[in-house]
Each structure stands twice: as C-alpha cells, then as structure tokens.
Amino acid sequence: MKYVLVTGGVVSGLGKGVTASSIGVLLKACGLRVTSIKIDPYLNTDAGTMSPFEHGEVFVLDDGGEVDLDLGNYERFLDIKLTRDNNITTGKIYQHVIAKERKGDYLGKTVQVVPHVTDAIQDWIERVAVIPVDGEEDPADVCVIELGGTIGDIESAPFIEALGQFSYRVGPGNFCLVHVSLVPVLNVVGEQKTKPTQHSVKGLRGLGLTPDILACRSTKPLEDNVKEKLAQFCHVPLEYIFTLYDVPNIWRIPLLLKDQKAHLAISKVLNLASILNEPSLGEWTSRAELCDNLHVPVRIAVVGKYTGLSDAYLSVLKALLHASVACRKKLVVDWVPACDLEKETEKENPDAYKAAWKLLKGVDGILVPGGFGDRGVEGKILAAKYARENKIPFLGICLGMQIAVIEFARSVLSLQDANSTEFNPETKHPCIIFMPEGSKTHMGGTMRLGSRKSIFNVKDSKSAKLYENKSFVDERHRHRYEVNPDMVERLEKAGLSFAAKDETGKRMEIIELPNHPFFIGAQFHPEFKSRPGKASPLFLGLIAASCGELDTVLNPASAHQHSISNGPTNIFINGTSKKSPNGLADVRYNNGYCNGLYTR
Fold it and tell me: Does the active-site annotation cover 437?
C-alpha cells in the first residue's frame, strides 16, 4: 500500500480537500485504484452535531456516517463510495482508546498520547486503507490522506506525531507528503512572496515531517525565480514544486497537476513508475472545457437558512452544476434568505423584503434545501406556494419537501394551522411528525441516516421517469421528522401525489403535483450521490424543467422523432466525440447519462 499525505500551511481554506481529490483523480487516470481518508482534529466524534456556519455542510455516506464535506469532494471526484471510518476525528480516536482501556486491553499500563493514541491513529489508517472500495476485490493501490487544519494547530499535534511515525512504519518509497501552502502577492510590492511557505515548511520539519512535494496556491502561476527560491530554502527539488493557481472551475485542478507532471513526481517518490500509465483525462478535460464555455444561463433560487455561507449547501451547489452542465446551461444561483420573504421582514426591513421577492420572481426554478430549526420556515413555505401557484419548477429536499406538504395542506386543504411538530408541537393539524424511532435527548447519530430504499408506487410519475422507471432507488437520508401517515389519504384526495414510499409503505419518500410543470419534493438528499458525469436525476429534472426541456429528458423517444430533421448530434463519451443513438443529445446514453457532455 502506498500513502499520499496532504497537509496545509500558512492559512486555512487553501483547498486541501480539492487538492487531495485532484491527486486522486490524476492517479486514478493513470490506472491506479485510489481510496481516501480525511483526518479532522476536532473532538467531535463526527460532523453531525456541528453548525453549517461553523463547518459547512454535513455530508452523509451510504452507511449513515455524518462526515466532513471534503469526503463529498472525494466521492464526487473519484466516483467512489466511502464509509464513516474514512473520516478520522480526535473524538473517534479517544473514544476507541478509552474503550480499550475500560476493557483492560492495555494490561494495566499507563495510557498515554504516545504510544497509545498515536498507535491507534496508525492502526486506523492501515485498517481502512486496505478496505476495497465500490465492490472491488482488491484493495486500493494508493490511499490519499488529508490532514485537516493548519500545521501548528495544537489539536493536530497527536496526528502529526502519528503520521511522522507512520512514514517510518511503512518505509521509504511508500509515503509521499504533499504540502499545500500559500504564495501571496502583496499589492504594494507586486511580487510573489515565498516567506510564508518557508516558515510553514520549517514548522513542518520541526514537527518531524519532511515535505516531498509543494503545491503552492497563488492567483497566478509561480514565476521561475520564485520556484527556484522555494526549492533552495525549502529543500524540495524544483520539479517537485507545483502551482495551483486560480482557475475558472475546480475540474481544472487535476488538469493543472497533469500539465505540470505531478503524477510523475508522485510516482518517483512512491516507486510507482513500473505500473503507472499515461493519465487518461479526455472525458475530464472535455467536461472542464464545456463548463467554461457555457453561456445560456439558467437561474435557480436557493431559498435557505444559511445563504451567507455557500459551503453550507456545497453538495446542492455541485448537484445543480452537474445537472446544468448536462443540459448545456450556465448555472446562475440566486441566494434568497428564507426569512427575508416573511411578512415580519417587510415591516422591519422593507428593502431586504423587496430584494428577496425580486430575486425569487426573476428565476427559472426554485430549490428549497434541507435544514433544521424554525428560522425562515415561513419564508420557505411562501417560496413553495409561489412556485406551486405560478407553475415555477420546484424541488424540495428533506425539509424542503416537508414545507411543501405544509403549504399544500394550508392552501389546498384550508388547514391554516397545519404545521410540523418540530415548529409547533401543539398544532391541530400535524402534517409532519417526529419519527417514532428518533431520540429527543441525544442529537448525534440518532436520525434516520444513510442509504435507504424508496419504492415507486406511481409508475407514470415524473420522478419515476427521471429514475428510468426503476422499481426503487437507493438514496441517502438525514432526518428525524416525516410526513404524518394519518394525513396521507386526505392529502392524496386533494391532489398531492406520493410517488414513492419506503419498504413499509408508511413513510413518504417523494411527493409530486401531477398538474404542475415540475413540482417534486424528496425526503432523501439526492445531492449526495450526484457526480460530475452522472447528474442526480431529480436535479437534472429541475434544471431541464427550468430550461423548458423536461420532455426531452423524460421522453427520449419523442426527442428522437424531433431530431430526425435536425441531423445527428455529437456527444462526448470518455473524451471521444460520438454520435448519439437518437440523433439528439440523449441524457440517458452511456450508462444512464452521457457524462454531462452533449451538444447539438
């Protein structure tokens, strides 16, 4: 097993996660099997109880693990499925060590950070790295490990020590350290400054780790004299110093690394030259170029609670991007703070109220993502009502689905008091209720989490067609409230369709309005399984409907009839231009989708 460790210096937010993911993409393009591990030095056992304002979104895995958003980057870039054990936290490690101490596994020894905690970290890495990913029989060739935080952080100390020991444990040729650092340009001086990186590398060396490769973040490519200076003072060969400068989209980062021959540098450090192929990134290149050259906009309003921090909805944004690229449209996201749509805001801050409604009324589609708490809920309900009454394409996710049910009950069934017991425990018409198996005393890991089946019971529904008329789908969940089963029959008689339910038939998974261009709500989170080349079906439906092209997606046969007069169409598959079997660019071609790359 070979290991690539990615660390960060100078400042946080440099893009270690994207760098680690891009290294994985590059190595995978060279024919290697790749897995990933993210180390988060915080004391929380997982990210489940952390505020999105504090740490961005909580990413959910198939096994129900609530993990750092960087694991979402790994899954999307590498197109693999990871487990909760691929996210190591200080909390998990200490919990593991203390449990062993309580059982007497240390045979009366004094339990200390060194060697017991550091050994536990190393053992965890080795155990997880050899677990085959996505049903492969053999383990990965390379494990990319990202150490969260910045070199010098107090909480990182046990992990730094453990990784220093680990580099000796696995031996030379099996461990490569990539240090991501900042090379800023001071406006007054106008030149790239190397001193921050020099100090960062010095600190890293002082902690027992020696970088093999430098990945330097900057606004522009590093000048030759700057690279020479870094090589001299950081003791890193010139050909092992790479620039990660600002690019139009993050899909270009693996291409930056490829152009600078980062794969060759890593292969030399890890002795991989004998099994390394020339990287095959044709499809990836085509997708990145297509994304840069899209001009026809599609405007989507994201009506949420955390609109001040885009990372709080990172997977939603990525899923929207995947779908918009698949539809050859330039994504424009309008952030609409849900609370600004409410009547109280009209009184307190009329300018914010007018601005929010102006944004909402100017979009092509509306998305209400998941969330918790009652702040902004009435604004989300108003957004759903506006979409329903004005035939605007709408997608509600988790809480977004629940507020759509509440709005329908209030407006169509005239149940003015209809609400969720999360927001009003005393409501006379509880449309949304607490799930029986949930816990009201413990927050972490007590929700309905992970991949669960949603079985379609309305075969001609838009959602079923978007999922290619499968009998069921497996999507990831994260919720502790659900649609009240006692109200389902009444809602159905009023015209709300429950297109999919769980295996028991009592838990509602997808809602639809049949007499609407596109009005769908999902209790699950489809964004977590969206991939750059495999857009989530529900997001694809929202974007296509917002562009007026939903029929093309739902009925490829009718698209074929239309395409006869238009002539053949080229699509990109694995980097090669080919003819679509339907003449028109068919989004179902090539294993479900044409990897987001089709052209007229």
Answer: no
